[in-house]
Amino acid sequence: MFLRILSLIIKELLASARDPQTRWVVLFSPPFLLVIYAFAITQEISSVNLGVYTQDRGAEARALISRFEGSPIFEDIIYLRSDSEIPAAIDARSVDLVLRIGPDFSRTLERGEHATVQLILDGRASNAAQILAGYSGRIVQNFNEETAAALGIPPLTKLVTRVWYNPNLDPLWSAVPALFAVLTAIVGFMVSALSIARERELGTFEQLLVSPLRPTEILIGKAVPALLIGLASATAMLILGWLVLDVPLRGSLILLYASMVVYLAAIIGIGLFISSLAATQQQAIIGLFIYMMPAVLLSGYATPVANMPDWLQVLSETNPIMHFIVISKAVYMKDAPAELFIHHTWPMAVIAVVTLTAGAWLFRRRMS
Amino acid sequence: MPGPLVQIDQLTKRFAQGNLAALDDVTASVSAGEVTGLVGPDGAGKTTLLRLIAGLLVPNTGKITVQGLDPVSDARAVHRIVSYMPQRFGLYEDLSVQENLTLYADLRSVTGADRDDAFERLLRFTGLTDFKKRLAGALSGGMKQKLGLACALIKTPDLLLLDEPSVGVDPISRRELWRMVYDLVDQGIGVVWSTAYLDEAERCARVLLLNEGSLLYAGSPQDLTDRVAGRTYQIRHISTDRRKVLSEATKLDGVIDGVIQGSRVRLVLAEGAEPPSLDLLDAGDQSEMALTPPRFEDAFMDLIGGGFKANSPFADRQDAATHTVDKVVEANALTRRFGDFIAADDISFDVGRGEIFGLIGPNGAGKSTTFKMLCGLLRPSAGSARVVGLDLQNAPSKARGRIGYMAQKFSLYGDLSVRQNLDFFAGVYGLRGQVRKAAIERMIDTFGLSDKLIVNALSLPLGYKQRLALACAVMHDPDVLFLDEPTSGVDPRTRREFWTHINAMVANGVTIMVTTHFLDEAEYCDRIALIYRSRMIASGSPDDLKESARAHGLEDPTLEDAFIALVEQSDREREAA
Lengths: 368, 577
Prior knowledge:
Largest sheet of chain B: 6 strands, mixed
Strand content of chain B: 15-25%
Oligomer: heterodimer
Helix content of chain B: 25-40%
Strand content of chain A: 5-15%
Helix content of chain A: 55-70%
Structural class of chain A: alpha/beta
Number of helices of chain B: 19
Shape of chain A: elongated
Strand order of the largest sheet of chain B: 5-6-7-3-8-9
Number of helices of chain A: 14
Number of strands of chain A: 4
Radius of gyration of chain A: 28 Å
Largest interface: A-B, 25 and 34 residues
Structural class of chain B: alpha/beta
């Protein structure tokens, strides 16, 4: 029996290694995608054009504008000559935000009173607008403090921000762990969901069914190679994230790998279940995408699970990707405690047991 | 007299630089008002030639004209006069018969009264009037081909190209298809019928015989057949083992080809050779050597230089099949239901050690269902299937370990090398250590695979694929070998090689179960069961079945005649009841 399963495992691995398509899709493309996506989804804002419309030629106004000019984030400063130019500039996206200074700004400040400036942002790019608002706010705050000091007014409260786990708020640090979890799932899904459907389409599956192999043995012989391939691909991504993308790994690798085996088992269980339902590879791929799209979108990869309606949150407990993203982020960003692993690993173990058993059952049913 | 409908001049088509040419310097013509047979095994270039004529491919060198038009540069004009029915089923399985016809009428811009006339005429012509509402996917193989033909005829073409219309079609539907094609020819249409079945060549006015991309022969089939006239013999009334007689006969220099036909052995002699002595062949006292009319296939074998001559290394082995059970395969009241539909109904038979047993029958009649239940691919709804005394339900893994299985389609791992495929199947059948090594070595020797070991199975030539598939199926010395349409589309020489191996294994006590469409192949069987409408309507030796057709007034019936006679008789009995 072990010889039979071993033969099947060797065959699966050889077939994946020798088929150029599988080799590319499964082994090389996920690490490649990790790098591409990591840079593409970066939330960093660069090459921003600032529009300035000032009706005040006083020293204070010029000092504030020069602070904006000195900031590395603003690439071009475009001076507007009238109010009516503002909407045109924003609409044409020739500027991303406009700083508008009224006629009595310098005079009000010199009198020691509160002055206001206006910041006009482009809400069509809401994420960028938020970041720019925060950034501009900090420039104005610094300006305030120094002006106050120069006037001899003591500062009232000062907010000091420290970001834990990602002190520089490097967007790569938060993107890579989530991507790692999602791409590992995609590898596991692809290898397992196509494997049986492919053999069924090529006619080799009947050849397996008439051999002494039992359905459970076929299932094990299909799941183990997929697991090994998934682990290999995940390892490549870990190394790449560490060496090329410079994202630190702070947690325990042993715990990470232990939970990753369970994670992949759950993923492969779902993949094999879909595969034994499908008669052709095309059906398997369609089935896979029907499952994968919502599973990825609702995994907390793009939006926090806590923001979802309650019933969806309950449902997402059955989503292995959701659990593994939590673990992956914890391992990357902080040295997570063992309880966190256990808390998120046992639901994945349940999913694995249920889907693999269902796959074996479906298998046996389809045989008769 | 007008020129030919299609003129092909020094045509060469290569799919990739450096590859073998799919068609190599072919010059031929097709005339209106007759059937031109495009004959050759799979991979000979038949489909490529049809697609070139239809303007779907561009030739590398050479020229084709259809009524003086170039199919590529005058594509629109050519498409108006040519209809092409692709291989397999080129229709929409999820649309009904009527919807498929309507779709093709729209595509061909046949509208108004013409359209109604065309539907009426074609449905009557193809006998599909009662099935207008049925989904095309639910039709039998023969009806699908008829529907395909109807769709190709929506607008009466000058030239009709049919790519292997008889594949997957039972003998009865095949005769009907031919009758329809003759009707079309009488209307002046030129028909090109491509086929891998050599017996169909005899029904054509002219044949173009292709092999590995080159044109071997162009002309009337009778002229080619006449070349071997007086050189074809049958050895009749053999009282010894006819398979041994065949194997002895094909070793002789004067014999260029030999096959088994029921209880008889058919031989084709070399030019000027005398028929071999019956004593030499050890054919028994009553045996006689009788001159028999030549067939197209005899001439084809003569043309390619004769059949497979080597001896099978299986003949020298005496260690196979060690079991002692008499009934190697038993079907006991096998029944299988799919919902309300009974696919196999109460089928029983026994197959003894060293016997070749064939299951034949029209598509969808239940022969595949029965076959699948016997090799454990399908669970019977009632009754039981046993192999060497082991029930396939109670001891499936153990029973399957005694079975070898070779599927119709090449079903080994294309991305694995020959060696890796052998290793895999050795492992799956639990061979280990010295036994495994010896088994793999033996297969490599037997099938001459030693210089192909590192080649990917997918890129092997067809003949080698066939050998590798057989090697993987018999490596573990099975007691029973299941063959599902083993040689469909294979060239006649490879088919003879295949059966040489099978015959040698049978001599060693291996039992063979075979399903086939190809009735020449059924001639190799010791016994045949004919499955029709889910029931076994006849069983016996090929000669027994022919005998029952003789009772219906045919003088020297072929197995195909017998098949049709028995099926028609069953239909009459069913109507009477």
